[in-house]
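dumping this here before i forget
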Amino acid sequence: MIKRIDFTYEMALAIHSCAKKQTRRPIKCERTQQPKYNVGDILVVSVPTKSPPMERIFLCVKDRRTERLHDISIADIEREGFEPIECDGDEYCSLCRKDVCDFSNDILHRARFIETWQDIYRHSDWDWHKNPKVWVYTFETITEEVAFA
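structure:
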């Protein structure tokens, strides 16, 4: 059975371009929640209806684990579809909102992930500052033929 997984349009584009290979989803009740997806599950990407149409994207779950949100590594931020930031410190930085950026590139990279997470979960029990436990799903894109085989 193919299961649906929701993504923003931007993240669906990152999956389509093979930049996104991982996603984090909040564990809503640590004592009782079973994972929504298991290794080997086939998923179809769903995006909000207000987004421009896009071809169907199919995924196969390759790995699943749990961790605290703050434990995300820079390598995993890249797997989440966020490209490394190259800030030379000589121009206005939209993330630190200063004329001259004084943060390291790793901090800026992490800030982009946090900003996106907060856009989704800011006013919930899964706010970044609460450091929730999350399911970490690693996946690969597959063809429709493989999905329905």
